[in-house]
């Protein structure tokens, strides 16, 4: 009976059911878009050069479907982060308006988490801290380094009072210590620039989830996957969907 349950649990991934193109081709296009600063039309031309006639709107739909799925599936495979947090937010244009992308890295520059928010206040900061603390690769931090944004002390104080955050966690408002995360923003900005802004909040959130996921993979955050080993990275992403690379 146990063997029968084990066999039944290993089913082919249905994520690509009904697609006109193969899963390998779809994941290749999605990975390339999320790794390099190119537009959908650029990627359309690259695929056409390889004999694959795929509209840029189709690639857009692939990214919207599979980028957040990659981000969700890699979480259990990430290495444990250390106890030092560097938190900052950067600006992302969505439908002609600026929104705020909260991001956190540890003292080694490894991405911990990210969250897109329409507002930059204490409630948004608490949502981000809760999201980061709820991940399997994180734990209560020893130090949290932030900039001079007054929302952070308010959020940390309230979370400590509610027992959501370790009472001995130290909040440091020191701009130069946050250079690690501020430098890390540049990689993201380079990827976002070819998009010329996002057409909607949900579109931005899904795409940014894919950017963040691929950034973690390329930084070597995934166990047994080298940050410079692109072949192993492609194999890892394929295995997330039970697809042969």
TrEMBL record:
It holds the Pfam family DDE_Tnp_IS240. InterPro entries: DDE_dom, IS_Transposase, Transpos_IS6. Signal peptide: none annotated. Residues 83-220 form the DDE domain. Keywords: DNA recombination, DNA-binding, Transposition. NCBIfam families: transpos_IS6. This is IS6 family transposase. The lineage of its organism: Bacteria, Pseudomonadati, Pseudomonadota, Alphaproteobacteria, Acetobacterales.
